[in-house]
Write a structure and sequence with these properties.
Elements lengths: L1 E8 L7 E6 L6 E3 L12 E4 L7 H9 L3 E5 L3 H10 L5 H10 L5 E3 L2 H28 L3 H37 L1
Parallel strand pairs: 1-4, 4-5
Antiparallel strand pairs: 1-2, 2-3, 5-6
Length: about 180
Amino acid sequence: MKFYADVHRTKKNSERYRITYSTDGKAFRHVDSFSGIPAGPGDQLFVDTIPPSHTDGAIGLLRRGVGVYYLRRLTLLSKVREELKLPKTARRDIKELMGIEEGLFRRVTEDFLVMRRMILGHRSLLRTHQQLLNEYKSLSEAEKEVMKPTIKSLEVQMEEMAGMIAEEAVKDIRPIIG
């Protein structure tokens, strides 16, 4: 069975996500996590996006034997919406997902999702490090001495995260190499 899902931010708390899904485009259900979707082995889930906070739920579906696919380019949905001058709604997005050819979706693996989450964490550390370096340049010598340990700590954390990413990448490559 094919499930189509739209992941969208909630109106009340824009940091939380709500998932609306359907199998036929007529009956719609809402869940707070991918684990709430009643898909089983052999089913397929086509989704517009997988937020990092929902990585564990998507991995849970993969472990249940569900094929999980996400849209390679979200701009496809917005283009269709703009051409038809339609407002954005979860139900309309699901119907648009149903009309998109399957080749435009990417099948995800557990390794891909784990790696993506770690890379996002590293990017966050990198951005914070860059911000601190930019601020560091404008400080007096006394203020710079106070900030040095923080910058050094971030550099150590970035190295640790990079090591974890490298270890995960080796796990992914090892079966290919033999």
